[in-house]
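If your schedule permits, I should be very grateful for your opinion on a structural question. I would ask you to consider whether the tokens describe a fold that such a sequence might reasonably adopt. Thank you for your consideration; the sequence and its tokens are set out here.
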Amino acid sequence: MKFNEDTRVKIPTILYLMRLGYQYLSLKGQSWDLDTNIFPELFNAAILKINPGIESDDVSLLLEDIKLELDNEDLGRAFFERLTDRSNTKLIDFENFNKNSFHVVTELTDQNGDEEFRQDISLLINGMPLVFIEVKKPNNREGILAARTYAATCLTPPHVNELPSSCGRLRTDD
């Protein structure tokens, strides 16, 4: 067996996430919005499931509103408020958390102008990429330095107001 970053870190992480309830989703044959990396089919199905009585047309309008909010120059505040809002149309069901859909994908490319980032693992909640995981095999100094550079790059404006380029905190053990 070949020992590399995939076999030593990425695949075990994905298997662990699947044990936690995430479904692995191959990007082959999937469609997603290149500006937001939201998967419309997953998003629509989840929103209809967690918001009884909402119509499909309303979900499409909601997705368009989210795209506009992600273009705001407010560092994601409007999107965060919508994400955590419990009185209007829910993006995540916090009361019945198992009603939400959870998917894990690998190598999802985020584009922002001429820049591209490809996280090792992205977690989708209701079709929205909300968690990004960059994995590095142990004792990989160059990889850790590259991850730090990546985090510094994507955490500087204007990227922070874009959903796909909002980077999580990277943990490095060096």
Observations:
- Helices lie at 5-19, 40-50, 56-70, 77-84, 141-154.
- The longest strand covers residues 102-112.
